[in-house]
Amino acid sequence: xxxxxxxxxxxxxxxxxxxxxxxxxxxxxxxxxxxxxxxxxxxxxxxxxxxxxxxxxxxxxxxxxxxxxxxxxxxxxxxxxxxxxxxxxxxxxxxxxxxxxxxxxxxxxxxxxxxxxxxxxxxxxxxxxxxxxxxxxxxxxxxxxxxxxxxxxxxxxxxxxxxxxxxxxxxxxxxxxxxxxxxxxxxxxxxxxxxxxxxxxxxxxxxxxxxxxxxxxxxxxxxxxxxxxxxxxxxxxxxxxxxxxxxxxxxxxxxxxxxxxxxxxxxxxxxxxxxxxxxxxxxxxxxxxxxxxxxxxxxxxxxxxxxxxxxxxxxxxxxxxxxxxxxxxxxxxxxxxxxxxxxxxxxxxxxxxxxxxxxxxxxxxxxxxxxxxxxxxxxxxxxxxxxxxx
Length: 390
Hints:
Layout lengths: L1 E3 L5 H14 L4 E6 L2 H11 L4 E4 L11 E4 L8 H13 L12 E3 L3 H9 L10 E5 L5 H9 L5 E5 L20 H10 L3 E5 L6 E4 L5 E2 L1 H15 L4 E5 L5 H8 L3 E5 L3 H11 L3 E3 L5 E3 L5 E2 L1 H14 L4 H5 L6 E2 L3 E4 L3 H11 L4 E3 L4 E4 L3 E7 L5 E8 L2 H4 L1
């Protein structure tokens, strides 16, 4: 399967990609302009050997790239084939097939809509939700999937023309300004901001306050474990203490994992986890082929808010019991030397090296990870009191 996002150069890249695939004898199903989660659906729907989504996700308009998935929508990463692809590409190895491959065009909108809506409970109460599509694929997909529901959508930046009103990265706080303002002005139940290819999102409560993705993971863990007790929930190691606490409290098994969708998806599959959440805004579902989906996350939050007797801020209030720094980035020359220095300095703590170094004391903890692409160390700190954090 091959699909693309709304960027102005995506059609040309898609055409070149399909041409190259056909030249090797590969048959291609072209599913058009879609969000990345629809690619995961298409791979499983058609039973293909994999898929490529032409997108640059949350990056600025001038960027583009390929998100490559294998059989069953398993991610193709550095350790699972990406290095081989890099070698073939840089060596300019041209493999010509004995026959030219074919191209079939398919519109999966209705099938995908039915897939997403099966996660919604019937007879939801009417809610008003502000949705900032970030001029990305959510602007096309949200109306197609949710347009017939009783839900009132306050639409922001739904135009998909490759130009962005703000950077399509909801993790940057300033990019949430429009959805926060709309929630407060229109008196919405909550607000959502999607990234460019709609596999990630951030949410704000009915007061316009940002909801940390670890808090959302904790809230959703309770929701899933209420339906499926004793299940496993995967969470990223930067998450608040509240996440494993809530998983255990609700009778589940917490599985702590490295940062990154490839690691999270593998952990989901290995443990048959019902759900997984990451601080980056990726949320993963067993019943969605162990992959992430912004629209399915929205569906589950609609279920939670519709069934609650209090607003979402009140559901989250008991979970806001610790104080965190958010992710802080520090430029350093020798990343490994600084990491070794931290290990020596905090040698009396409980240490682990699952991803970078995590230092745990009874009242506070931190994780420090080196960036894979920049001379940066990424630091997350959490404490039981605000004074201790400061």
